[in-house]
Amino acid sequence: MHIYKVGGAVRDRLLGRPVTDIDWLVVGATVEDMLAKGFRPVGADFPVFLHPKTGQEYALARTERKSGRGYGGFTFHASPDVTLEQDLIRRDLTINAMAEDADGTLYDPYQGKADLDRRLLRHVSPAFAEDPLRVLRVARFAARYAPLGFKVADDTLGLMQHISASGELLALTAERTWKEIERALMEAHPKVFFEVLRACNALHVLLPELEPHPQTLVALEQAARHQLALPVRWACLLHPLPTASIKALNQRLKTPRECQDLSMLTSQCLEQANKALELPAQTLLDLLQTFDVYRRPQRFEDFLAACRAIAQGNGQTDYRQADYLQGAMAAARAVDVKPLVQAGFTGQALGEALKNERLQTLDAYKGS
C-alpha cells in the first residue's frame, strides 16, 4: 500500500498558494485493507474512505470508462493493480495530475509542473472530452488563476468546443452546473469564467440569456473587486436581463432563494435607485416596502451594493444614491409604533397610521 497526496494540494503548494483541502490517493490496497485499518467508507460510486483520526478523505486508485451521458456517465474500476499513472491520467488538467509521497517526492508523469511554469491549463488526455463538467471546471480554474497569468491551451479549448457542440453539457444536472457557477462567481476575477465559456461556445448552451449582454461582466468584476456576497454578484451579472429571463434562468439552475430574490429585485428596481434623489416620498416608501426593509434590511443593503457596483461598471465613481437610500431606510425604520398603539390604533388602522408616519418622516428627510 502506497499513499500519495494528489491534485490541488500539490498544485497549490508548487504555486506558493495556501493549501486548505488535501486529497489522498491509496495505491495497492483493497477495500478490506482500508476497513482493517479503521477507515470508514463513504463513497457511493467508488471507494472513498474517511481516516479514523483526521477525517480526511482517502480514495483508492481507480480507472474509469464512459458508459453514459453527462458527469455521472462513467463506470469506475478500483483495484490494487491500478497504478498511480493510470489513476492520474483520468484527471482533467495536467496541473491537477501530480502526486507527492510522504517524503515529498513529486510524481509528475504528464508534465504538470512544466505547465504550471508556463501558466497553461492543458488537458491530460483525450478522455478529457468525455466529461462535460470539465468545461465548467477549466473555466473556473481560468478565473481563479487569471491573476497569475494562466491561459487555456488551444488544444484544450478545442476539446471544450467539441463538448459544447456535442450536446453533453445539457446532460449536466442543475445542481452540478450551479455549483461550478457559484464557485466561479466567488473568484477574484469571475468575468474570466464567462469569457472562457463564451470562447468555447458553452455560454450559448448553458446561459444563452447572457450572450447579448457582455457588459454585465464589468459590473460583476466591480462586485468581485469589493468582495461582495454571492447574491450581489449574481444580481450584478443579471441586472440588464428582462425579469422573465432572470426568472427562467434562476428556475433552470435552481439557484438559492437569496440569489433569486436579489437578482429579480435589482432588475426591477435599479432605475428607481438611480433616480433616488428625485423620487417623491410616496415612491421612496413604496421602494423600501418592496424590499421589506423593516424585517430584512440586509437585502436592501445588498441591493444598494449591487447598484453601486453597476454604476461603477458604467464609469460612475460617485454613486450618492446609495447613501441617500440608506438614510431613507434608517429614517423609516426609526419610526416607533408604540405611540400609535398607545393612542388606540389597532389592526388595519394601525397599519395605515404607521404608513402615514413613515411617509411624513420621509418627506421631512427629503427636505433636510
From TrEMBL:
The keyword ATP-binding applies. It catalyses: a tRNA with a 3' CCA end + 2 CTP + ATP = a tRNA with a 3' CCACCA end + 3 diphosphate; a tRNA precursor + 2 CTP + ATP = a tRNA with a 3' CCA end + 3 diphosphate. Keywords: ATP-binding, Magnesium, Metal-binding, Nucleotide-binding, Nucleotidyltransferase, RNA repair, RNA-binding, Transferase, tRNA processing. ATP binds at residues 8, 11, 91, 137, 140. Pfam families: PolyA_pol (PF01743), PolyA_pol_RNAbd (PF12627). CTP binds at residues 8, 11, 91, 137, 140. Gene3D superfamilies: Beta Polymerase, domain 2 (3.30.460.10), cca-adding enzyme, domain 2 (1.10.3090.10). Its EC number is 2.7.7.72. Residues 149-211 form the tRNA nucleotidyltransferase/poly(A) polymerase RNA and SrmB- binding domain. One of its GO terms (molecular function) is transferase activity. It comes from the Bacteria. Mg(2+) binds at residues 21, 23. The keyword Nucleotide-binding applies. Its cofactor is Mg(2+). Residues 4-122 form the Poly A polymerase head domain. HAMAP family: CCA_bact_type2. A single active site specifically recognizes both ATP and CTP and is responsible for their addition. Belongs to the tRNA nucleotidyltransferase/poly(A) polymerase family. Bacterial CCA-adding enzyme type 2 subfamily. Catalyzes the addition and repair of the essential 3'-terminal CCA sequence in tRNAs without using a nucleic acid template. Adds these three nucleotides in the order of C, C, and A to the tRNA nucleotide-73, using CTP and ATP as substrates and producing inorganic pyrophosphate. tRNA 3'-terminal CCA addition is required both for tRNA processing and repair. Also involved in tRNA surveillance by mediating tandem CCA addition to generate a CCACCA at the 3' terminus of unstable tRNAs. While stable tRNAs receive only 3'-terminal CCA, unstable tRNAs are marked with CCACCA and rapidly degraded. This is CCA-adding enzyme. It comes from Pseudomonas parafulva. The gene is cca.
